[in-house]
Write a structure and sequence with these properties.
Chain A has 273 residues and is of the alpha/beta class. Chain A is 24% helix and 26% strand. In chain A, the strands form three sheets. A nine-stranded mixed β-sheet of chain A has the order 2-1-3-4-13-12-11-8-9, with helices on both faces. The model of chain A has no long low-confidence stretch (mean pLDDT 95). The longest helix of chain B is centred in the middle third of the chain and has 15 residues, at 51-65. In chain B, strand 3 (71-77) and strand 4 form a beta hairpin. Classes of the chains: A alpha/beta (273), B alpha+beta (169).
Amino acid sequence: MGIIVAVIQFPGSNCEYEAARAARAAGMGADVYRWNRNPRDLRRYDGYIIPGGFSYQDRNRSGVVAAKDPVMDVVAEQAENGKQVMGICNGFQILCESGLLPGVVDRRIQAGLAPNKAVRDGETVRTGFYCDWVYIRHEVPGNTCAETRLFEEGDVIPIPIAHGEGRFTCSDDMLRQLEENGQIVWRYCDSQGNVTEEANPNGAMSNIAGVCNVKRNVLGMMPHPERDSSLYQMPESMWPEKREAYGNAEAMRGPGPGLKVFNSMRTFIEDSL
Amino acid sequence: MNTYRASVTVRLKIPDPEAVTVGNTVRRMGYPVEDVRLSTRYDISVDCGSRQEFEQFLDSAASELVNPNKHFGSTRVGRRKRELGEPERFDRTGYPTRVAVTVDGDPEGSRVESVLRDRYGYATARVSSERLWDLRIDSENPASVAAELAGEPTYFLANPAFQKARIEG
């Protein structure tokens, strides 16, 4: 029996099928698992993906209502047992609101994804929903975080973002702990890998785009790896390799940089079985 | 030039789906909350040369924030309250506990500020916003229930990483 992961669908999720397709492209089986099914059935899966979207229409604040759903108790229990959990965009918000990330102290809420507010030289330049392609830099050595173990430290990839509440925020003390523990996995950067204020699309503290927990089996990231997991999804201006594939249908179905996230997930599960 | 201050309060006329969801969720969590109402309050200040100019400014700000077709809205300058359109029917006496929530950096306030500056030319306008959750709680100690919803152990109404909650009533 092969590896099979659950892609958890809440009311308002909108990337569950793309995430399942990317997981399958990486060689895993993937079921879209509705939030109101019996949570105990979740235990049979090898890993979990909480996809993007607007669970419960982001009511009150993004992710907080889904975080109180019973399925999240099972996800927390299985994460404690060492299984992998990846939250993308709204999934990242849900993991923060449920206390699974950054997970430095039990399941306490220690961080959040606040409404976007990008500032340049002290002036607010952007608030509200923002959708664009950005670059992110991998901040930890290879084989560190389960879901990005195939990336090397300093790898830069283009990737899309689409969110209104993605400004990673925590206390200064927590930020220091995240730095010291090596839990900051992705940072927004420019195409050359420079982490700058201009490259920060949402005002995230320290340009943080993704963090993992202390045990490194739970990852949350605001950008969408499932939306750049195939070559045909990539803009050629940011991924020149695409030009070489024009006219070749098979080559166009080749991998985009985001597929490595799902491949990392698969290899980690294979090694842990 | 004098600095003038006012507040604008906005509430949906229809049952607010966000408040309904919050009510359903906290009841599912086991809290005796009978009903929840949500409104947003904007505190605005601006430098104006005259009272008349300030009244013009306040009309512009209110028109940005309140659509009388779907909102109950009011402005308050000092003790003077003015309804914008249909008078609000909500009676707060049945909802004695209020949790006011602000967001660090206040992006919503910044957004309104930039509209007033860029669209209307009020360069000195300053806006802060807070969401007001009015709760009808079936408990002998409603303030302690509200405290648990706003802070430890649920942090449901405010995430301590970027929000601050204040309990009134």
